[in-house]
């Protein structure tokens, strides 16, 4: 989404031709001439009079010493000397509280402050009291108040590699920004499997089900083809088993309770002899007063990355850790670089000062991220950061880190970049001067807080999604483009990058009427994030349940009381077309290619009144996308939901070559006690679906226990054996063909 700020930054980067009079050598010459003529003294006096600042020398030093600001300053001087202190993105005349101009060294810090402060003012949040303003990532303790007269140390002409802000050392990135991502020693089997050369020939094993091939995702169970690693977050245990040809052997149990990671949000990676655990430290909630009621809000969450050396499987050794502000959101591993995403909420009290940077800027390993590593998008109204780090697992150093204001919606990661989304409400004015206009959430709140009768403007409301694109090259995070589209995104399977285009399925309300009925939209955006193709107002009154993109064709399911499966031709990005629509009972919550023109659907079967009849597995023939048919299905009435229903797409294993479909299914008895089975199904074009295994290893859950505990299990295969690893119970093994139980071990 183009704006003046973006174009100006492009000019500073050399992407736009700069006039001769604005080139650095001519700028310096002009400044010297104006200094000699006394004109700079006049300008300084003007600023002194208007800003009540008696430090003319500081102003002159500021103009001379800041490269980017000097360009902006000279541009303003050319237009007119008195315009020098007019508010701009690179040299502001102050924030909403009338603070004084700031330099490029803290530009992004203060832009973040202004944005958060405005959001807090409009929300009324900073009027209230808070237990804590943040967390000290070095000591994991609440930060005390910083004296109001404490100044931020900014040394534009310093040659040192570190500045100090509020006592926090802000270091320049010492890691090689061009670290190459090493190629994996394994090769992908294309269906979640890997083949590796073992001592006895070729070993085959399954991998975690992931959104993007080649981009690994964290999970509670991992295997490297010889060992099975199980993370029992509930008991803070790391368990390692040797697969041992279907007769697993318990090798070690490591207590990582000292890491203080919360079991409900912890994941694991294997990278050679490195095992990485990622999760939250503490629940991160604190109380604050809002309308005279104490309510919990996230302020103190901390994401921890714990690195274990597993060279000796019998004695894993904690060798390092990293911390970043915010609660753990998600992560990805590409080659040897681990990308961790955390979400940090910030609340600034009414008397908070923008010079108190450590109060509102996230920290990584105890230090505030640097000014140039803070990204603020003017289109976002939020007090929430997405903190992104790229950790090279070989050097154990951060290649890059960013604190992005916003982006706490859907995260979609490709092999060379990622996309973050934000959601914002818009309104249509029904009367007054703005009648018929679309009003942003900020405008609406501004009117409310300025004493206007804001509610007179409230008409139809609708949601839009801000999608921002970032590049990843060797771990370096680069801000690229953004745009806003109508509706909201269900999950990262509803957004897909292909041949330089981004295809997105959204669900929302129409923007051109007061009728509250949901609609589905399809958008195609080019590499610059410009919308080049759309289909709108699809499936009125229905809700998006799942989506899958397969090359030039996209599939998505909507639901009211039947399951319309739509197919969209995306071969011409500027003219997407719906080419097929199949209506069947129930709905699919997840879809997966199953080879040979087939696509698997996993979901819920319902009747005409939307009553749940059981879980459903469907096989669709998609060889002709314009004529999709359901060729087979099986409904298991015993179960009411699956692990997919709870949003856990990592929990399913789908391998067409091995003919395996496995996941956890949940059911209740007559007293509403809850249980789960691990199901394994196969599919044959002649025989249809066949349930091969329904394995229950003491999964009873009382009404007082956490239901998610019973779903902490995964299925995987190594060569000719299938293993079910349960974080609490242990590992069970079965023969692949007939799924006969071979062994159970705790």
Characteristic key phrases:
single chain; 746 residues; mainly beta; five-stranded mixed β-sheet; five-stranded antiparallel β-sheet; 48 strands; 11% helix; disordered N terminus
Brief digest:
The chain has 746 residues and is mostly beta strands. The protein has seven helices and 48 strands. Helix 4 crosses helix 5 (67-79).
Per-chain topology:
Layout: H1 4-12, H2 24-37, H3 39-51, H4 56-65, H5 67-79, H6 107-123, E1 162-165, E2 168-171, E3 187-188, E4 193-198, E5 201-206, E6 221-223, E7 227-232, E8 237-242, E9 249-255, E10 261-271, E11 274-281, E12 285-290, E13 293-298, E14 302-309, E15 317-325, E16 327-334, E17 337-345, E18 363-364, E19 367-368, E20 374-376, E21 384-392, E22 397-405, E23 411-413, E24 417-428, E25 438-440, H7 441-449, E26 461-473, E27 476-486, E28 495-498, E29 501-508, E30 519-525, E31 531-538, E32 543-550, E33 553-559, E34 562-569, E35 577-585, E36 587-593, E37 598-606, E38 612-621, E39 629-636, E40 641-642, E41 653-655, E42 660-668, E43 674-684, E44 688-695, E45 713-718, E46 721-726, E47 730-735, E48 741-745
Parallel strand pairs: 20-22
Antiparallel strand pairs: 1-2, 3-4, 4-5, 6-7, 7-8, 8-9, 10-11, 11-14, 12-13, 14-15, 16-17, 17-21, 18-19, 21-22, 23-24, 24-25, 24-26, 26-27, 28-29, 29-30, 30-31, 32-33, 33-34, 34-35, 36-37, 37-38, 38-39, 40-42, 41-42, 42-43, 43-44, 45-46, 46-47, 47-48
Helix pairs in contact: 2-5, 4-5, 6-7
């Amino acid at each position: 989404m183009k704006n003046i700020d973006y174009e100006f930054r492009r000019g500073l980067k050399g992407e736009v031709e700069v006039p001769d009079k604005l080139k650095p050598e001519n700028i310096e010459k002009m400044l010297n001439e104006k200094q000699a003529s006394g004109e700079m003294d006049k300008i300084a006096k003007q600023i002194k009079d208007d800003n009540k600042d008696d430090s003319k020398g500081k102003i002159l030093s500021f103009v001379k010493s800041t490269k980017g600001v000097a360009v902006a300053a000279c541009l303003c001087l050319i237009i007119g000397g008195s315009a020098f202190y007019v508010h701009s993105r690179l040299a502001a005349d102050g924030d909403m509280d009338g603070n004084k101009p700031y330099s490029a060294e803290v530009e992004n810090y203060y832009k973040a402050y202004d944005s958060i402060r405005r959001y807090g003012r409009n929300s009324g949040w900073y009027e209230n009291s808070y237990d804590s303003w943040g967390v000290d990532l070095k000591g994991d303790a609440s930060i005390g108040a910083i004296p109001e007269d404490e100044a931020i140390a900014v040394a534009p002409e310093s040659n040192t590699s570190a500045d100090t802000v509020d006592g926090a050392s802000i270091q320049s990135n010492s890691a090689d920004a061009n670290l190459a991502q090493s190629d994996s020693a394994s090769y992908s089997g294309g269906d979640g499997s890997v083949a590796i050369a073992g001592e006895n020939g070729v070993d085959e094993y399954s991998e975690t089900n992931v959104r993007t091939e080649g981009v690994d995702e964290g999970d509670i169970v991992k295997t490297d083809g010889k060992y099975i690693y199980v993370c029992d977050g509930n008991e803070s245990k790391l368990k390692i088993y040797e697969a041992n040809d279907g007769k697993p052997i318990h090798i070690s149990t490591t207590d990582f309770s000292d890491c203080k990671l919360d079991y409900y949000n912890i994941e694991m990676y294997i990278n050679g002899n490195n095992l990485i655990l990622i999760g939250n430290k503490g629940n991160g909630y604190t109380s604050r007063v809002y309308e005279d009621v104490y309510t919990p809000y996230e302020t103190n969450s901390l994401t921890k990355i714990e690195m274990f050396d597993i060279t000796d499987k019998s004695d894993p050794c904690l060798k390092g850790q990293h911390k970043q502000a915010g609660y753990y959101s998600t992560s990805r591993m590409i080659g040897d670089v681990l990308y961790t995403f955390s979400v940090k909420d910030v609340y600034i009290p009414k008397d908070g000062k923008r010079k108190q940077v450590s109060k509102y800027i996230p920290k990584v390993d105890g230090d505030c991220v640097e000014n140039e590593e803070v990204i603020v998008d003017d289109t976002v109204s939020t007090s929430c950061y997405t903190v992104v780090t790229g950790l090279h697992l070989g050097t154990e150093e951060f290649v890059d880190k960013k604190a992005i204001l916003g982006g706490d919606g859907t995260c979609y990661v490709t092999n060379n970049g990622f996309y973050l989304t934000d959601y914002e409400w818009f309104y249509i004015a029904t009367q007054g001067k703005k009648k018929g206009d679309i009003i942003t959430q900020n405008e609406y709140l501004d009117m409310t807080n300025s004493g206007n009768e804001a509610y007179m403007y409230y008409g139809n409301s609708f949601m839009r999604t801000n999608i921002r694109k970032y590049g990843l090259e060797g771990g370096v995070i680069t801000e690229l483009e953004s745009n806003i589209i109508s509706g909201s995104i269900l999950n990262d399977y509803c957004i897909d990058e292909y041949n330089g285009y981004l295809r997105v399925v959204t669900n929302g309300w129409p923007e051109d009427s007061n009728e509250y009925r949901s609609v589905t939209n399809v958008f195609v955006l080019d590499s610059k994030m410009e919308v080049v193709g759309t289909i709108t107002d699809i499936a009125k009154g229905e809700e998006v349940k799942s989506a899958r993109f397969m090359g030039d064709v996209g599939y998505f399911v909507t639901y009211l009381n039947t399951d319309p499966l739509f197919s969209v031709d995306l071969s011409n990005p500027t003219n997407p077309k719906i080419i097929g629509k199949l209506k069947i009972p129930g709905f699919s919550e997840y879809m997966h290619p199953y080879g040979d023109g087939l696509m698997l659907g996993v979901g819920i079967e319902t009747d005409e009144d939307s009553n749940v009849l059981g879980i459903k597995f469907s096989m669709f023939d998609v060889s002709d996308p314009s004529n999709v048919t359901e060729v087979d299905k099986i409904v298991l009435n015993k179960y009411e939901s699956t692990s997919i229903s709870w949003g856990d797409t990592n929990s399913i294993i789908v391998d067409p070559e091995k003919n395996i479909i496995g996941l956890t299914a949940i059911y209740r008895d007559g007293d509403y006690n809850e249980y789960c089975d691990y199901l394994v199904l196969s599919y044959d074009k002649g025989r249809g679906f066949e349930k091969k295994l329904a394995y229950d290893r003491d999964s009873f859950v009382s009404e007082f226990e956490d239901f998610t505990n019973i779903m902490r299990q995964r299925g995987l295969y190594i060569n000719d054996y299938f293993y079910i690893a349960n974080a609490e119970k242990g590992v069970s093994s079965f023969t692949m063909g007939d799924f006969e139980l071979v062994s159970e071990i705790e």
